[in-house]
Design a protein that fits this description.
- This protein has about 290 residues and is α/β, with parallel strands linked by helices.
- Helix content is about 30%, strand content about 25%.
- α6 links the parallel β8 and β9.
């Protein structure tokens, strides 16, 4: 992306952005975002901004193999019901909104949702530069940032929606950035999510079964749940889809490639819960 085009794309979003180091407002100076205290972040010609340049990317376990596998899975339509549930919740808003998809990875949800709400502002954020590079390359009317959700680069009370799909939450950061009346849409795995992978690897995982009760209890301490949708479907798999599912989940980070090649999943269960929430103020907690 040419810098001039990047500058033009960024202008409508500039007033919402703040320096993650000091909280000051930004201006665009040439090929950089520069805050009032002279902290400087370059506009990449690849179409994203890295506002977490100190993060050690070499420590990231989310690599190209995972993102390629996740893209193949998403293209297979397995998560379309999740997308529709989020779209329905967003459709309840009566005015254009500003949304930040935190932990967006390769940006599939923000990119797919933005055309449905063309008058709204969409941001996609992730600490993995690999993920954001892929998101920016795929395009879409979204502002892509390498950023830490514990230091979100937004002005106080500037966002209408925070979208958190299968990502740890920092409710303090969310409450700070959300407007009065703003909402969190959080997607968490259900107990049967990818249960076929858990069964295939039961001897190598720390926990054979999964419960989201701890996550739900923590969320309820800090949010009022306004809407709760449960989606559970089991799909047949072809060989390539099986291999993609095995490589797109952190569950298999410690499993040897040789072992993954020996596993053939005939089906996969997508069991997820989509929660529309009001984040409660005046506390400090994260997870």
């Amino acid at each position: 992306m040419k810098i001039a085009a990047f500058q033009q794309k960024l202008l409508p979003a500039l007033s919402l952005l703040r320096c993650p180091q000091c909280g000051a407002a930004f201006t665009i100076e040439g090929a950089s975002l520069v805050c009032q205290n002279r902290h400087c972040f370059d506009l990449s010609t690849k179409g994203y901004i890295n506002v977490a340049p100190g993060h050690h990317q070499e420590k990231e376990k989310y690599d190209g193999v995972l993102f390629d596998s996740r893209s193949r899975v998403l293209e297979g339509g397995f998560y379309v019901p999740i997308f529709h549930a989020i779209e329905t919740m967003l459709g309840r808003r009566i005015a254009p909104f500003a949304l930040a998809d935190v932990g967006c990875g390769e940006g599939a949800y923000a990119r797919a949702l933005s055309p449905c709400f063309p008058d709204s502002l969409f941001f996609g954020l992730d600490l993995s530069r690999e993920g954001i590079l892929r998101a920016a390359k795929a395009g879409g009317n979204v502002h892509w940032l390498v950023a830490d959700l514990k230091a979100l680069p937004f002005a106080p009370h500037s966002l209408d929606v925070v979208l958190d799909v299968l990502t740890p939450a920092d409710y303090t950061s969310f409450a700070k950035c959300l407007k009065e009346g703003g909402e969190l849409i959080k997607v968490i795995p259900g107990s049967d999510y990818l249960k076929e992978i858990r069964l295939a690897l039961k001897d190598q995982l720390r926990e054979e079964e999964y419960s989201n009760q701890k996550v739900l209890n923590h969320l309820k301490e800090h949010c009022e749940i306004l809407e709760h949708t449960v989606i559970r479907q089991t799909f047949p798999l072809e060989h390539e889809q099986s291999q993609a599912f095995l490589r797109m989940t952190p569950m298999t980070f410690s499993i040897a490639e040789e072992k993954l090649n020996q596993i053939e999943l005939s089906a996969i269960t997508i069991h997820m819960e989509v929660l529309r929430c009001k984040v409660l103020p005046n506390y400090s907690a994260s997870n």
